[in-house]
Amino acid sequence: PDAIRLEAVAKQYPDGTTAVRALDLAVTAGEMVALVGPSGCGKTTTLKMINRLIEPSSGRILLDGEDVTRADATQLRRRIGYVIQSGGLFPHRTVLDNVGTVPSLLGWDKRRTRARATELLELVGLDPAVHGPRYPHQLSGGQRQRVGVARALAADPPVLLMDEPFGAVDPVVRDRLQVEFLRLQEQVGKTVVLVTHDIDEAVRLGDRIAVLSEGGVLEQYDTPAAVLGS
Ligand code: ADP
Ligand code: ADP
């Protein structure tokens, strides 16, 4: 089965706003799909539903063929890593503790959690001895985003959901982070849904682009050949 599959998914918030309507999307294992579209078209809502932070009003979401509403929260954290804009780090926890959040929740012992967090900081290009004991406000924007990626990868989930992961840094840093993320993805090989409103980023990082409009998938392209028209 597909790694992620959304079938006629709709979401209406309690205040009556329809954020997503009749969304169909299938993501193959190991594929990176970029969800693009204007602000307010339902991208974040879609990621939150896949992650079960919110429930769809109707339709089905399947992970490896299994309905996510049947999976428990701990199991989902093991299977899905979530990267949000600006890292979304806990401000009162050190970088090392931020990266160890999910392993701790999963009951890993302290030593194993620390060893994993150290390894991940190195993987995303930070120095564990220097940056590990710092608090998020003591890092640059680019460094916080690296920590956000490290945290999402900590329990080695097969699926990564990324919400504007490189949005809040200046263009030069973003460029570097994108290149590094592509290199990292070659090593870790996750199934990725990347939300962005930056079409260049979508073309650069995605294997496929799904364009959202008013809560539904408008069109899909393979990258880069299909987009470049060759
Ligand atoms: P995007 O990520 O594409 O910018 P969102 O998924 O954040 O879009 O939002 C889709 C629509 O749902 C927007 O109109 C937004 O204002 C609305 N929305 C988002 N969250 C809520 C909420 N908690 N309650 C009501 N409406 C919301
Ligand atoms: P970037 O090029 O990634 O945006 P910055 O110019 O923001 O980097 O930061 C440069 C260096 O200064 C980084 O190594 C960062 O760790 C450090 N730094 C930034 N803000 C603080 C702070 N409030 N306290 C300590 N170090 C900081």
Automatic annotation (TrEMBL):
UniProt keywords, alphabetically: ATP-binding, CBS domain, Nucleotide-binding, Repeat, Transport
GO BP annotation list: glycine betaine transport
GO cellular component, one term: membrane
Enzyme class, broadest EC rank: translocase
Record domain ABC transporter: where: 4-230
Iron recorded as keyword: no
Superkingdom as given in the UniProt entry: Bacteria
Molecular functions per Gene Ontology: ABC-type quaternary ammonium compound transporting activity; ATP binding; ATP hydrolysis activity
EC number, UniProt record: 7.6.2.9
Record's keyword annotation contains Mitochondrion: no
Similarity annotation: Belongs to the ABC transporter superfamily.
Name of the featured protein: ABC-type quaternary amine transporter
